[in-house]
Amino acid sequence: MIDIVGYAAAILGTIAWLPQVLKAWKTRETKDLSYGTNFMILACMLLWGIYGIALASWPMIVGNMISIALVTSILIAKYRFD
Amino acid sequence: MIDIVGYAAAILGTIAWLPQVLKAWKTRETKDLSYGTNFMILACMLLWGIYGIALASWPMIVGNMISIALVTSILIAKYRFD
Which of B29, B40, B54 sits opposite A2 (nearest CB)? Predict the structure, then answer.
């Protein structure tokens, strides 16, 4: 039962980044976003991905790979539009 | 050894929010931030907090409580300054 909460959190933590990605590329306005936060979140996801590999946890690996792609695209948008 | 990676990820995932909080309140500019992303991240942290309580994992509980406070303050900043 509590596993469902964990899976829901993992899925939500991945799709959560989508609105920010869409907003950044649509409006081309990214100056209010913090480089520090987005780089640390990216590093955090890389660590969780490594942790997932060590635990052979496919949901962690796949979830973090998608999140890494989304946050990287936010950072690319910020680099281009700032 | 791999536990260190997990702890590092958990700590980084908490302090990562600090630069965005400071930037939002200092510049009073928050329009580029996505409500959708921040609300989903908040919901995600609430779920991880509940998961942490179920597992009696103090690092998860404390880390998520701090993160919840930080992301809530980003949402309050956005509500005030947009």
Answer: B54
Give A15 to chain B, closest Cα distance, Å.
8
Instruction: Select the residue of A9, A19, A29 nearest B44 (Cβ to Cβ).
Output: A9
Give the N- to C-terminal CA distance of chain B in Å, as an integer. Answer: 45
Q: Residue B34 gets which letter from DSSP?
A: -
What is the residue-wise DSSP string for A9-73?
HHHHHHHTTHHHHHHHHHH---TTS-HHHHHHHHHHHHHHHHHHHHTT-HHHHHHHHHHHHHHHH
In this predicted model, what pLDDT tens digit does every residue of B24-78 receive, in sequence order? 999 999 999 999 999 999 999 999 999 999 999 999 999 999 999 999 999 999 9
Number of domains, chain B: 1
- Helix (H, G, I), strand (E, B), or coil: what is residue B56? coil
Find the CATH number of the domain harbouring B36.
1.20.1280.290
Q: Which domain holds residue A43?
A: 2-81
Give the angle subtended at the CA of B78 by the CAs of B12 and B44, to the nearest 5°: 45
| Cβ-defined contact of B34 to A55 (cutoff 8 Å) | no
